């Protein structure tokens, strides 16, 4: 394993070098007359919001491209371009998170205060979000303009952004204050929210970027999209489960889905499996801040054996995803999909 981790940390270091290069290009973008003040602001904003996460989405563009090239050594240029696309996804993520945190009035993100909670930032964070969003086409224009797949890339990012924003909308309007109605929560609603809000940009987008770079036409790979969306849904169900049963030391956050009245897989399954008496408990205690209410919900989850129900969901999903992958005609595309599945199966964080 040691040499594998060495390779992974090298890849990460190379990836972070590309961030620095893209950042300095953006901070000298000739379309704007920069001042020291504006340059410092944007640099601080980028460093605070873009490179701070696990970078899974960005790194998986490079991983996927390598697998599509079937082990041929990549040129420095290919590594740079795949990294640049990976960073475009990380920029997209940063844009969503900066604005999401304002909408949710969150306090912390990745173990530090949300950007809008930083002194002197406040609502300027909204405009910062818009700037993050606008950096993506700047990066694409500078490095991909002359590529035959340039228009496809622009289309892809636009489409996925629209799908993600629309998923966020369903999520927001489902949990409007004063209209908290648990009875509208169902598996199909959970699936729609997750598909649009998370799966497209976290699972489909990195692979679609790699396919375009490898000269593939996305239209000829509809099954790839379907498998990746299903993987994204499986990933989110794990997330919902870990929010309740994960160890905070491992997952790096304290779960609050119960308090926040989230349309979580856990509550949807509980609604499906409970009797009338248990349903009363759910309706009465779900979405309340009080730790006693939360404890009642968790006790009910245990009573319904949701840990067992989840374990069964996990193995069924894994089998289903695996057979979908093995039905794919291309061995290199199979390798990409299997690598994704291997990373998330039975994860603990």
From TrEMBL:
InterPro entries: FPS1-like (IPR039702), Isoprenoid_synthase_dom_sf (IPR008949), Polyprenyl_synt (IPR000092), Polyprenyl_synt_CS (IPR033749). Keywords: Isoprene biosynthesis, Magnesium, Metal-binding, Transferase. The keyword Magnesium applies. It comes from the Eukaryota. GO terms for biological process: isoprenoid biosynthetic process. One of its GO terms (molecular function) is dimethylallyltranstransferase activity. Belongs to the FPP/GGPP synthase family. This is Dimethylallyltranstransferase. It comes from Salvia divinorum.
């Amino acid at each position: 394993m040691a040499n594998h981790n060495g390779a992974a940390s090298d890849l990460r270091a190379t990836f972070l070098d590309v961030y620095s290069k893209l950042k300095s290009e953006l901070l000298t973008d000739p379309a704007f007359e920069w001042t020291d003040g504006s340059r410092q602001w944007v640099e601080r904003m980028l460093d605070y919001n873009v490179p701070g996460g696990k970078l899974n989405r960005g790194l998986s563009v490079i991983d996927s491209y390598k697998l599509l090239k079937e082990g041929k050594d990549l040129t420095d240029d290919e590594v740079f371009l795949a990294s640049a696309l990976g960073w475009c996804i990380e920029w997209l993520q940063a844009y969503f998170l900066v604005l999401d945190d304002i909408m949710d009035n969150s306090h912390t993100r990745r173990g530090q205060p949300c950007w809008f909670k930083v002194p002197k930032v406040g609502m300027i964070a909204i405009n910062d979000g818009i700037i993050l969003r606008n950096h993506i086409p700047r990066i694409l224009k500078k490095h991909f303009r002359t590529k035959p797949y340039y228009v496809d890339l622009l289309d892809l990012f636009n489409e996925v952004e629209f799908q993600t924003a629309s998923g966020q909308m369903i999520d927001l309007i489902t949990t409007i204050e004063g209209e908290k109605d648990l009875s509208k929560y169902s598996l199909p609603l959970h699936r729609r929210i997750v598909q649009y809000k998370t799966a497209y940009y976290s699972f489909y987008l990195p692979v679609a970027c790699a396919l375009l770079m490898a000269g593939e036409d996305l239209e000829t790979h509809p099954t790839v999209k379907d498998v990746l969306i299903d993987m994204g849904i499986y990933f989110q169900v794990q997330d919902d489960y870990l929010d309740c049963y994960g160890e905070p030391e491992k997952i790096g956050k304290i779960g609050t889905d119960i308090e926040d009245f989230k349309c979580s897989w856990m509550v949807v399954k509980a609604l499906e499996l409970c009797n009338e008496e248990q349903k009363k408990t759910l309706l009465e205690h779900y979405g309340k801040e009080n730790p006693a209410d939360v404890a009642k919900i968790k006790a009910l989850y245990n009573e319904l054996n949701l840990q067992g129900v989840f374990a069964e969901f996990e193995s069924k999903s894994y089998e289903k995803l695996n057979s979908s992958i093995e039905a794919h005609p291309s061995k290199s595309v199979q390798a990409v999909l299997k690598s994704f599945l291997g990373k998330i199966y039975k994860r603990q964080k």
